[in-house]
Amino acid sequence: MSIITTPFSWLLNFFYDMFGNYGMAILLFGVLVKLIMLPFQYKSKKSLSKTSALQEQMQELERRYKNNKPKYQEEVAKLYRRAGVNPMSGCIWTLIPFPILIALYSVVRQPLSRLMSLTEEEITLVTDKLVAMGQYTIPEKADAYAEMTLANLIHENFAEMQGVVAGLKDLDFNFIGLNLSSRPQWNFFAKVDWSNVQDWGPELGLFLIPVISALLTVLTSVLIRRNTPQASSSGNDPTKSMTYMMPIMSLYICFIMPAAMGVYWIIQSVLSCLEELLLGGHFRRMREKEAEKLNAVENARNAEIERRRQETERLRAEGKTEKNLNTSKKKIQAQQKAEDDARRAAAERAEREARRARLGIVKEEAPASQVGTRRYARGRAYIADRYAEEAAAAEAAAAAAEAAEAAEAEEAAEAAEANEPEEEIEETAEEEAEEEQ
Length: 437
Fold this sequence. Notes:
About 70% of the residues lie in helices and about 0% in strands.
């Protein structure tokens, strides 16, 4: 939090030292924040204009899929992707003022530690001095606005408080007769002396701050809705909820916080109204251009879809189309994968055949007994038409038997040759052992 509150404290101190007026410092701070936020607000408005330009297509989708909400949402998401629009990007920038409001509240609520940069020990010394002077009584419960009370007492008794701690500052919270460190009271009329204008005048002024803030927020919402096309009846209008929620929020915040926060909210609302009045026409023209551009893209897409449909109808009428009964996406993908594998296998076979041809390798003729890569899967004596040619089958069986015997004899001879060196070694070892004995 100190990362944000430190520059805020410096700005408020700078404006207060320049004008010597706390209310003027709050107003100038609000103007500066609005100027800094203007590029972000412009980006938000631009994104909102793009989203608003799609209202015609969205209404058509809503009419088409009024009884199928999941399909409607899917088509709206596709429309956003085609248009390159992120409907949430315009809402992100509108949330930035709230952290600023919280940080400013921290600075306003803690003038001793934020504006005067006093430590806890120094604040304790100031508190003890005011208690000793009889100006302040330490509350039994923790008071969130204790520093504002102490700052007011320091201003009223600044001559006596000078020199207590270094960095002590004379802060005057008065602005047009109102103490901006005070909080407005909604039931002030039951607590004031109506015969004394000095009593009820400031209280009435404080009470009007939340009211004026809420009314200006309503005006801002109305101007925003005027400059923004109405969304479809599905409830996707981002400004509809703001029209009711923001004034209530502003009224509540300005009643529970010091009046300085209400003044800040008022200046922000005034500047927002001016922004809508001055830039509303620009955003309307931007929205119209975006709508024309998106409509042209959508019309071209629809024309291409219609052209393909007519081409399909023509081919179907000529009998040149084949109906694909397999409409499952997974099955189509599996079929495509099998076709790709078959093409790769054929390419590899062709490459092997070409390599054998270059090397002069003649491929042996596959016997009738071969199955796949197993040459004698059906037996060496297999003959396909053995029942029709019994004599040939008998000769093939005899030849196979002789070949098998010859193969066995050859294998036995090779095994004997492999065992001869071992037998000679064993005989030599036995002779050497006998000679030693």
